TrEMBL record:
Family: Belongs to the ABC transporter superfamily.
Keywords: ATP-binding, Cell membrane, Membrane, Nucleotide-binding, Plasmid, Transport
Predominant localisation class: membrane
A GO molecular-function descriptor: ATP hydrolysis activity
GO BP, sorted A to Z: peptide transport; transmembrane transport
Gene3D superfamilies: P-loop containing nucleotide triphosphate hydrolases
Membrane topology term: Peripheral membrane protein
UniProt protein name: Dipeptide/oligopeptide ABC transporter ATP-binding protein
Length: 329
């Protein structure tokens, strides 16, 4: 299947401003997303998931910069696109739902004004028609009385309602690619389910590709076709979601799955990965996970590359699956 988005060896750095090398927050990340498919990008806070999304959108603020790699969207390497070319792509063909809706909404403009302007920025359409499309988009994400709500200001909405508005704005043009950064975290379970259903319809009916950034493996198992697991700025495992979540190869992936409450028995202490994610400027030598890994040996002091295994890949010389362990020795 032809990829709509192909990210190859992406490196994103944040400069220290002291003449020192920049800190690599995203390090040698490669992703592929096809039309109509959902890629789940998972990992703990600080793993580099959101920065990967911002890099693809070319929305990094200084001192952040893309220091290497390619981001090929529909045949064009957008790393080399001008600011004007990116403005034409954002919103129309590539949209992002931010974790914080205040990054999307202007507090001094009504919701209707912002949505109508978003429509008319990319399509020649009357204000009346743009307002109707905006009203329908609000209805899709479960906002009651959408016609009346168009005249309201962001401060008149709850946090969850503002997030629904931000999602509605991303859906206005039915873009080719949506990057959703923890889009349902602030929503209740009922609305969360409704939003997920809308994204599923988009992928099926509009052939939209989605990168869903989250720490919630339950959502990934329901929504995603493939999953990429990040740790300390690097991918540690990728593959079909059904295979990765039922038979993980990397110890970090296995730890994430084991820490889900539903995987634990009632009355027993919740299992968790010991320790904390290291700061990006104090990563251990070699495998970044080795100081938290029960399988680590001295050999892990050298960073392994991504190892292919059929339709999957993993970054570990001591994988969880015994058959792979033997094959790698």
């Amino acid at each position: 299947m032809t990829a709509l988005l192909k990210v190859s060896n992406l490196v994103t750095e944040f400069g220290t401003g002291k003449g020192q090398p920049g800190l690599r927050v995203v390090n040698d990340v490669s992703l592929t997303v096809a039309r109509g498919k959902v890629l789940g990008l998972v990992g703990e806070s600080g793993s580099g998931k959101s920065v990967t999304g911002f890099s693809i959108m070319r929305l990094l603020e200084k001192p952040g910069r893309i220091a290497g790699g390619q981001i090929v969207f529909d045949g064009t390497d957008i790393v080399n696109c001008s600011d004007e070319e990116m403005r034409q792509l954002r919103g129309k063909r590539i949209a992002m739902v931010f974790q914080d809706p205040t990054m999307t909404l202007n507090p001094v403009l009504t919701i209707g004004t912002q949505m109508v302007e978003a429509v008319q920025a990319h399509e020649k359409m009357s204000r009346h028609a743009a307002r109707q499309r905006s009203r329908d988009a609000l209805g899709l994400v479960g906002i009651p009385s959408p016609e009346e709500r168009l005249s309201a200001y962001p401060h008149q909405f709850s946090g969850g309602m503002r997030q629904r508005v931000a999602i509605a704005i991303a859906l206005l043009h039915k873009p080719d690619l949506i990057i959703a950064d923890e889009p349902t975290t602030a929503l209740d379970v009922t609305i969360q389910s409704q939003i997920i259903s809308e994204f599923q319809k988009l992928t099926e009916e509009a052939n939209t590709a989605v990168i869903w950034i989250t720490h919630d493996l339950a959502i990934v198992s329901r929504l995603a076709d493939d999953v990429a697991v990040m740790y300390a700025g690097r991918l540690v495992e990728t593959g079909p979601v059904a295979k990765v979540l039922t038979d993980p190869y990397h110890p970090y992936t296995a730890g994430l799955i084991a820490s889900v409450p539903s995987q634990n028995k009632r009355g027993e202490a919740l299992r968790q990965i010991r320790g904390m994610t290291p700061a990006i400027n104090r990563l251990p030598q070699g495998c970044s996970f080795r100081t938290r890994c029960d399988r680590a040996t001295n050999a892990c002091r050298v960073m392994p590359g991504l190892m292919p295994a059929d339709d999957r890949s993993f970054r570990c010389i001591h994988p969880v699956m015994r058959g792979l362990h033997d094959a790698c020795d």
